[in-house]
Design brief:
Length: 516
């Protein structure tokens, strides 16, 4: 047998899947790690924890799959975007990995957006100006922690760190680079204007390579530990978002992928780089000939978790006792409420927001609450608010990539029939649920197969992905949503000027509370 491993270095865990060359899952492993949030805006991880997790899951799938010498043809990687690690002169981390969710660069992002320079850099890099981006993180470190910043020999991401540990080289592929805010997506090189802003030279950044590039010669100790020979090629791969599109067969023009896990995204593949005139959409590389345009949202399943934990604690306990999913119980409660939640609207900005509003200070709210509304209305309104937000991202994408032909929906929410129908009704389009297991891992594996010549075209993924459900919009529901969406949008705009004020109040009083 010939095998390929697709590995995904995620925000909360690293996954690895062993596939045969037809895309069949042979073995799976998952290893989680801690997110450090010492202050309200911090979101960091220990690079060593991540590397240990990568080693753990690769070893597990090799053992579970009983892979013999010569059967493993390649290992290909997906990774979360926007992480930043500073490395010292001895090639040791000076910092933990600052993740996409870290918000400490918010003020520097806002200043960059307001002074006009941010728009110029976005037009070349396709990365929206936001604290998620390494550009903003580095600007914050340069100003707030100059001694640490100046000590850095290299500024890298999590995947580069893993490859450095395995192969001793600092190399970053175009896909992860295109999410830094420092990479010119039209020239495929580091952008001088961004580097000048940060006072860094190219030699302090990784060498750029293509997503399909390969490297061999894994460190002998790790090779022996994993059972992976030095002749096995590792493919650099791409970022998790673009590989998820590939992994659910959303790579043809007009095929949109809507994903909701903890966070969420709406993405479509185009054949050349394109940027939004208003700076609201990202444009990241899948390969140098395929680019993914879209918008990420902070507030997906994490909002559902908040609703469960804060509003439905008794149901959560009951679910644990019955050994059933607490989310299934909440979904059943929400199903009893009609579309539109009897006029209760929810803006799901519990953790700031990226697309569609790109406001790190945004805060959540219920609007239209009356004595007639119940907790059941609140859970349905929360779910609808998440989808309204995604719909706004879709409207922005239509402005640069045209109206979608079809929608592929994935992520944890896709397990819910209510959510799938809600998505079809609000988007007023058919929604297909691909039969996809760990879509970013599959996308990585398919990209690896393409790199190694086992398949001639990435479209071969269609033979590896089935269909589990198709949902059609229901007229009585989408007519309700047509009425409510304009109100939801207007309320969001009215609240926007006050987001920063309330966020600063919260930060100030939280700090005072902690000091007591």
């Amino acid at each position: 047998m010939d095998y390929m491993i697709g590995a995904d270095i995620g925000t909360t865990s690293t996954k690895a899947v062993l596939y045969d060359m037809k895309g069949k899952v042979i073995a799976y492993a998952n290893s989680g790690y801690q997110l450090y949030q010492d202050t309200p805006d911090m979101a960091e991880e220990d690079p060593e924890d991540i590397f240990d997790a990568v080693v753990e899951v690769l070893g597990q799938v090799m053992r579970k799959g009983k892979v013999k010498p010569g059967e493993l043809k390649g290992v290909s990687f997906s990774s979360a975007m926007h992480s930043l690690i500073l490395m010292d002169e001895n090639d040791q981390p000076l910092t933990r990995a600052i993740t996409w969710a870290d918000n400490r660069a918010a003020q520097y992002s806002e200043d960059l957006k307001n002074n006009g320079l941010g728009a110029e850099i976005y037009a070349k890099t396709g990365t929206p100006i936001h604290p998620m981006a390494p550009l903003s993180k580095m600007l914050w470190l340069k100003n707030e922690k100059p001694d640490l910043y100046n000590k850095a020999k290299k500024f890298i991401d999590l995947k580069t760190y893993v490859f450095y540990r395995f192969f001793g080289v600092y190399q970053m592929e175009y896909s992860i680079a295109s999410a830094t805010g420092m990479f010119n997506i039209f020239k495929l090189k580091w952008e001088p204007q961004a580097l000048d802003l940060l006072d860094v030279t190219e030699d302090r950044l990784p060498e750029l390579v293509e997503p399909t590039d390969q490297i061999k010669g894994i460190n002998k100790n790790y090779g022996e530990l994993l059972g992976i020979g030095e002749d096995v090629p590792f493919i650099f791969g791409a970022s998790d978002g673009v590989l998820s599109n590939l992994g659910v067969n959303a790579i043809d023009p007009g095929v949109v992928a809507v994903t909701i896990g903890t966070s969420g995204a709406v993405r479509v593949v185009v054949d050349k780089p394109v940027v939004d005139p208003n700076g609201r959409l990202f444009c990241y590389a899948l390969t140098k000939d395929k680019w993914v345009v879209g918008g990420p949202v902070n507030n997906g399943g994490i909002v559902f978790r908040w609703v469960r934990d804060q509003l439905f604690a008794p149901e959560k306990i009951t679910a644990e006792q019955m050994q059933v999913s607490s989310y299934d119980i909440l979904t059943q409660i929400a199903e009893k409420i009609p579309a539109g939640s009897d006029g209760l609207l929810f803006h799901p900005y519990l953790g700031g927001e990226r697309a569609p509003i790109w406001n790190a200070y945004a805060r959540g709210s219920f609007f239209g609450l009356t004595r007639q509304h119940t907790r059941a209305h609140m859970v349905r309104a929360a779910l609808e608010g998440i989808v309204y937000n995604l719909y706004m991202v879709m409207l922005m994408i239509e402005g640069v990539a045209g109206k979608p032909k079809s929608i592929q929906a994935t992520g944890g929410f896709a397990r819910s029939a209510l959510w799938r129908q809600m998505l079809a009704d609000i988007f007023e389009q058919d929604v297909t649920i691909p039969e996809s297991f760990e879509s970013s891992c599959l996308g990585a594996a398919v990209l690896g197969m393409y790199s190694l010549g086992y398949i001639d075209d990435l479209s071969e993924v269609k033979n590896m992905v089935g269909v589990t459900n198709v949902h059609h919009p229901e007229e009585k529901n989408f007519e309700v949503y047509r009425e409510l969406l304009p109100i939801w949008i207007r309320v969001s705009k009215i609240l926007a000027p006050e987001y920063k004020s309330i966020a600063e109040f919260q930060k100030k009083h939280m700090k005072e509370h902690q000091e007591k």
